[in-house]
Amino acid sequence: MNTTLIDPRTGRSRGTSPIGREPEVAEAVGNARTTLASWRALTPKERSRKLERLASLVEENAAEYVARENAGTGKPASETAGEVEQVADLFRFYASAVRAQSAPAAGRLVDGHESWVRWEPLGVVGVVVPWNYPLMMAAWRCAAALAAGNVVVAKPAETTPDSLELLARHAAEALGPGVLTAVAGDRETGRLLVAADVDMVAFTGSARAGADVAARAGGRRVSLELGGNAPALVLPDAPADTWTQLVDACAYNAGQSCAAPARVITLRENYERAVAELAEAARQRLAGRDFGPLNNVDQAARYDRIVKSSAARRSLTGEISAGAGEEDGFWRPVRILADLPDDDPAVVEEVFGPLLTVQQADDLDAAVHLANGVPQALAASVWTRDLTTGLELAGRLDAGETWLNCHLVQTAELPHGGRGASGHGTDLSVLALHEYQRPKTVTARLVRG
After folding, report:
1. Mean per-residue pLDDT of the chain
2. Could you tell me the residue ranges of all domains in the chain?
3. DSSP per-residue letters across 276-327
4. What is the Cα–Cα distance from 213 to 198, expressed in whole angstroms?
């Protein structure tokens, strides 16, 4: 059974991809289970060297990764090239991090006894990744899981199987067969993987799908990253480049980033300026610029539905950047919605597209209330030259990651994760290693004679 793949830039068929069902999922998980003992038995040094080799293969084949990623996402090659570079860096980061882990206190904590803590891998990890960053989201999950001593069976999104398929092929070469396997397919394939003999599920996707994953996983560990609806608190003394920074972050990957700015919130006296500055920044920064289409017809329909249902009295729309022959692709312009109620669909729902809403608040307390007034709590930003006020506001925002005078700035060393409807769990940083491990306390009574 195959599914037809669509080029999001043109809306036309670009080939087919297999749809995994129970036999394919069972075979992949069974092979992973067989491989687990030998992979987890490696020392951190040995696993590190293999992960370094995988990073080198990604770098050596960067052009093919870029081509495959572009085919499924439609994003410009300049963006994808940077993401492929980040993927190689992630595998190198965890190759090093696994050799420098810390543990809880050890020693003679009970009189006459010696104790220590072992961090052990969970086993076989089922990873389900989305279509907005097919390769990078896979690396976020797989690099930490593999470094921690687990084996992985990963399912890419139905529309973007290309780059993960290549990563699995290179993983077989660098890490050994069965250590990282990819099973292409649709939502049913993902459900089969969750129901299979895996010890943990790491899922990145929508809140609805995440709730289904959690229910199907039962008592097994689940790590969920379920999207965001990020507020950007812009104070009257914000830096001059605030507006261009926000527009750039909104347009990156056509707004299909879980942590992208979505809701600009400012004080009442700064509201009209904010609307005008954002519109001007969009006009200057995005004219003729290719920031890519939405990924698929369903996502385009969702964007259109939310915009159509919005009660915004002002809708400022930029240009569509489609090229010749791309008129039937899933292109949508950057749009700024102003003069809309606080419970507007464009405010409370995650649009996941190139759209910014603008809201006004009477004071900082009201601004924080608006920022924290939606179910999602993944990321946020504050824009002000007053460092003290900015840091205080960052502390009051309910978000797993908060930026001050910037947005979407991330690195392997810093953790990323959500709260509330945005899920739970940690990606990136050394903290993510423990996402895929469990502690075992060992205590020995000291006996003489």
Report:
1. 96
2. 2-226+422-442, 230-404
3. HHHHHHHHHHHTT------SSHHHHHHHHHHHHH---SEEEE------TT-T
4. 13
Nearest alpha-carbon partner for 227 in 412, 415, 400:
400
Residues with catalytic function:
225, 258
- pLDDT single digits (tens) 277-323: 999 999 988 888 899 999 999 999 999 999 999 999 999 988 777 88
Q: What are the structure tokens assigned to 210, written together?
A: 């995440």
Q: Which of 258, 60, 252, 24 is nearest to 140 (CA)?
A: 258
Local confidence band at 107 (pLDDT 50, 70, 90 cut-offs): confident
Q: Classify domain 230-404 at the CATH class level.
A: alpha beta
| Structural tokens at position 333 | 């312009």
pLDDT, one tens digit per residue, over 335-372 is: 999 999 999 999 999 999 999 999 999 999 999 999 99
State whether CATH 3.40.605.10 applies to domain 2-226+422-442. Answer: yes
SS3 at position 387 = helix
DSSP 10: T
Contacts of 449 (CB under 8 A, 6+ apart): none
